[in-house]
Amino acid sequence: MAHDAASVRPRAGRHSGTQGRKPPPMKRDAEQRRTYAALDLGTNNCRLLIARPSADGFVIIDAFSRIVRLGEGLASSGRISDAAIARGVAALSICADKLRRRHVTLVRSVATEACRRATNGRAFVDKVRAETGILLDVIDPGEEARLAVLGCQALLPAGDGPALIFDIGGGSTELVLVETDDDGTCRILDWFSAPWGVVSLTEAEGGRRSDDTAQSIAAYARMKNRVAGAFADFAATLPRPLVPPRLLGTSGTVTTLASLHLGLPAYDRRAVDGLVVPADAMRGISLRLSGMTVRERATVPCIGNERADLVVAGCAILEAILDIWPADKLGVADRGIREGILRSLMARDGSVV
């Protein structure tokens, strides 16, 4: 559900000495004054985009991203921990401040797998509203899949036949089978949500930060088997493509691996978003990372300490996806749920997208 941003705006103050002054000039197009925001609180990340409509879509005017690991420990306890709550509220407080300063007209804030699964998910949502003014909408996996497709469908590699779009999250992975209509939009044929993301799969392995290469390789094999088992029933329903299948991924995993494929010294969204990478190259990078220790991965550009213990779980999920949908190439999208939210808000509000 979208909300008017008034709930996160400060109260109007008292003004004096303004009589006789000219009001600020009105913009020519009222639509240009409207500002929209999309906030995605996932199991691992908190991300915000603030944008204004433009003739060919929208222009980002502010953004925020922070790893909060909201789902840390969730698999064993069933709850969002006090430390994770504090990290989440701190990040969302920054988002609330941005919403106020940017005078956002309409905002939709969504939460996904961690809040769906946690026994104290509702209490966390209430705490966020009380402390930040942000109204989190805990969406179901189907809505999560729809928004991801809406946000990244423009980057689906050209071709015929059905395509698979996937989103590797922190607590779950969404697989969406789509068909491209004549106007380039994607129509969802089927979708599936697996309860494995980079955080939940890492913790299923005990969250071990092994510095033994043999143990790391064995853990990687176990992770792939877990995900393959979760995908099995959905994989059995997938059609056999008569042409080379198309595949598009949106997640930190695929953007990180794409950065390594390009040999970037630091992450560059402009180089990664829309890139098409050979699937074999992504498999090769995944296997190389799986044989490295956590300390070794932490020294790799675009991975660092924050992703060193989680990226291998993402690699295992990616390889399991390639096993069930053996595309030759993989499209990479640094866009997804937030962009989908922005497009849906603007379309519903009558803005050009």
Describe the protein's architecture and organization:
- The chain is α/β, with parallel strands linked by helices.
- It has 15 helices and twelve strands.
- Strands 1, 2, 3, 4, 5 and 6 form a six-stranded mixed sheet that branches. Strands 9-8-7-10-12-11 form a six-stranded mixed sheet, with helices on both faces.
- β7 (163-168) and β8 (173-180) form a beta hairpin.
- α3 packs parallel to α5 and α8 packs parallel to α14 (311-324).
- The chain is globular.
List keywords for this structure.
single chain, 353 residues, alpha/beta, six-stranded mixed β-sheet
Unreliable segments of 5+ consecutive residues: 6-28
Mean pLDDT across every amino acid position? 89
Share in helix: 40-55%
Rg (CA only): 21 Å
Blueprint (SSEs and pairs):
Elements: E1 3-4, H1 30-33, E2 36-41, E3 45-54, E4 57-67, H2 74-77, H3 82-101, E5 106-111, H4 113-117, H5 121-132, E6 136-138, H6 141-152, E7 163-168, E8 173-180, E9 186-194, H7 198-204, H8 213-237, E10 246-250, H9 252-262, H10 269-272, E11 276-278, H11 279-290, H12 294-298, H13 304-307, H14 311-324, E12 329-333, H15 337-348
Parallel strand pairs: 2-5, 5-6, 7-10, 10-12
Antiparallel strand pairs: 1-5, 2-3, 3-4, 7-8, 8-9, 11-12
Helix pairs in contact: 3-5, 6-15, 7-14, 8-14, 9-11, 9-14, 11-14
